[in-house]
Amino acid sequence: MSLREKIDIDNLPQHVAVIMDGNGRWAKKKGNLRIFGHQNAITAVRETVEAAAELGIKYLTLYAFSTENWSRPKYEVDALMQLLVSTIRKETETLSKNNIRLQSIGDKAALPAACRAQLEEAIELTSKNTRMTLVLALSYSGRWELVNAMQKLADQVKAGKLAPEDINETAIQGALNTAEMPDPELLIRTSGEQRISNFLLWQLAYTELYITELLWPDFRKEHLYEALVSFQQRERRFGKTSEQLQKAHS
Ligand code: IPE
Ligand code: IPE
Ligand code: MG
Question: Phi, psi at residue 211, to the nearest 5°?
Answer without folding.
Answer: -115, 125
